[in-house]
Design a protein that fits this description.
This protein is α/β, with parallel strands linked by helices. The protein folds into three domains: 86 residues, no CATH class; 219 residues, Tandem AAA-ATPase domain (Rossmann fold), CATH 3.40.50; 231 residues, Rossmann fold (3-Layer(aba) Sandwich), CATH 3.40.50. It contains 22 helices and 19 strands. A seven-stranded parallel beta sheet has the order 7-8-6-9-10-5-11, with helices on both faces. It has a six-stranded parallel beta sheet with strand order 12-17-16-13-15-14, sandwiched between helices. Helix 14 packs antiparallel against helix 15.
């Protein structure tokens, strides 16, 4: 690629695009050609299109060829120089910018759904990327209908990999919205792939176990639901996903980055290998500088991934949703609870902090944090201790009795199934009906249906891991989080089980926190990390729990 420029003698000359881009980035208005002549840069044009030019030049390989994922930039550059894009780039310039001008896609004739306006735009975007075989990351807020939008874009033999807890939901959504599609659930001890099926549904465990079998299949489309499951590219699950063969790849997740920026790299390595370079290059060029607050790498990374990411927030596109209110409920530990908590902290605190400060292992610090967090919830969680009561559980039961008496229904989340066991006992004593969903639940769909049904139990106990994603629990309008986690995105996922499309009542999210414990510091950590979060998609990238964070929590 070359530019036509005018030198200091008024003559028209040809200048390589690399020289023009380099001079513009250096902030100069002219390019020195030789000892006596200068070329004047097209300053106004470069101010508008310089970033796009740089992206295009950086994408070319050693032979000067442009990879598939760089086609949107190439199409935009054609428009910028007044040339008509070739047929294979038609429409792709709309992906560079605000997505205006994306052509309307044809919806499946058998579709049994009325799409909201933002969902229609999402389907148009997905279908454009499907036509051009460009990887797509649909990162809408949880509860905005990513599954429905994806079903509208399915055309050809498709593999959907999803958490076990959402497989039944996928099957039900297909039956409801796309009954023309034949479905095969590839799961269980007698699993077999139905060769006549349009959509094969499986989970991440089977993907890992059956890596070679699934990699041998020729898929038209591969969809990863809750794609944060491959956030660590070094895991067997991620490697199995990378090995899949498909003409088009899609990732669905409301939280594309939960802890580290490299999680975004892993998803894009699945979607478009090469777009973000190698993992080592990505860490050096983007993650480390962005963590230090550098603005240019942030802007450059955003520009690179923008064509392939669609992110809408509830506040922007689902204004009809009722408000969501965050409430912190504090409880004081009783005399015995305080004595045990303080003893646990005193026994190991000085040694652990000294070890951390000296750069030692974090294992002891994490163990101490675990015991302190358990002591703040219920002493019976601590190995070797027995306790018949808990200040926090008593506060929870009081709350549940109050809200259910007023006709409300509630979700209760904990990361510990042992704590759910203890709560079960207290709910039975209080005469409160409930259902429970955790990793041991066999009939998940039945449990959800019972809770969602009119007149169903007013309380659902849920383990954070088993029920944090993929569930529609709009029968509840109160959510209780018993043990705060240092990654606020995980708690947001839990809260969004109730605050999603279909909810008609205001939702209240209650965080139960024991006063003067590590739990209060975890809430402070939430606030600080959200303030310092790096905005890559449009929301927060919550940094991982660092050594400094551990020291702060243990102070």
């Amino acid at each position: 690629m070359v530019f036509s420029a005018v030198d200091s003698d008024g003559r028209e000359i040809i200048v390589p695009a690399e020289q023009v881009a380099g001079a513009w980035r250096s902030g100069v208005g002219t390019l020195k050609l030789n000892r006596n002549h200068l070329a004047y840069l097209p300053h106004d044009w470069l101010e508008q299109y310089g970033e796009i030019l740089e992206q295009f030049l950086a994408a070319r390989d050693a032979k000067g060829e442009v990879p598939k994922w760089a086609r949107p930039v190439a199409a935009r550059l054609c428009k910028a120089v007044g040339a008509n894009p070739p047929p294979d780039l038609a429409g792709l310039e709309a992906l560079v910018g605000d997505f205006s001008g994306i052509p309307a896609a044809s919806l499946p004739e058998e579709l049994r759904a009325r799409l909201r306006e933002y969902q229609r735009r999402g389907v148009d975007w997905l279908c454009l990327l499907r036509r051009t075989r460009l990887g797509a990351l649909l990162a809408d807020d949880m509860g905005l209908g990513k599954t429905l939008q994806m079903l509208c874009a399915i055309d050809g033999r498709t593999l959907v990999v999803a958490p076990t807890s959402t497989l039944h939901n996928w099957a039900a959504e297909i039956e409801r919205f796309r009954p023309d599609l034949r479905v095969c659930v590839y799961h269980g001890p007698r699993r077999q792939i139905d060769r006549a099926a349009d959509v094969i549904l499986t989970n991440y465990a089977i993907l890992r176990i059956e890596r070679e079998t699934l990699a041998r299949e020729a898929w038209e489309i591969v969809v990863l639901d809750e794609a944060q499951a491959i956030k660590d590219p070094r895991t067997a699950t991620a490697e199995a996903a990378f090995a899949l063969s498909a003409r088009w790849r899609v990732a669905l997740t409301g939280t594309p980055v939960e802890n580290r920026l490299t999680e975004l790299w892993s998803i894009f390595y699945f979607l478009s290998p090469g777009l973000l370079g190698s993992r080592q290059e990505f860490v050096k060029q983007y993650e480390k500088p962005i963590r230090r607050g550098a603005s240019r790498p942030t802007a450059k990374l955003q520009a690179m991934v923008r064509p392939f990411v669609l992110r809408r927030r509830k506040s922007e596109v689902a204004r009809e949703l009722p408000p969501r209110t965050e409430v912190v409920l504090r409880c004081a530990l009783d005399v015995r609870e305080r004595r045990v908590y303080d003893a646990l902290r005193a026994a190991a605190h000085t040694e652990v902090v000294a070890q951390l400060s000296a750069g030692g292992s974090v294992v002891s610090a994490l163990e101490l944090l675990l015991r302190l967090r358990q002591a703040a919830c219920h002493l019976a969680l601590i190995p070797g201790l027995q306790a018949k009561r808990s200040s926090k559980v008593e506060l929870l039961v009081e709350q549940l009795l109050e809200v259910t008496a007023e006709g409300h229904r509630a979700l209760v989340f904990s990361q510990w199934t042992g704590l759910l066991d203890l709560i079960e006992r207290e709910l039975k004593r209080a005469g409160l009906d409930f259902v429970r969903l955790d990793g041991e639940t066999i009939d998940r769909a039945g449990v959800v249906h019972r809770f969602q049904a009119p007149g169903g139990p007013p309380v659902m106990l849920i383990s954070l891991k088993a029920g944090g994603t993929g569930l529609n629990l709009t029968a509840a309008d109160h959510v209780y989080i018993l043990d705060p986690w240092w990654n606020p995105a995980v708690e947001d996922q839990a809260a969004d089980r109730a605050h999603r499309i279909g909810q008609e009542r205001p939702v209240f999210v209650h965080r139960l926190v024991a006063e003067d414990t590590v739990e209060e510091r975890i809430l402070e950590l939430h606030a600080r990390k959200r303030e310092l979060a790096v905005t890559m998609i449009d929301g927060a990238q919550t940094p991982n729990l660092t050594r400094e964070d551990l020291l702060e929590l243990l102070q």
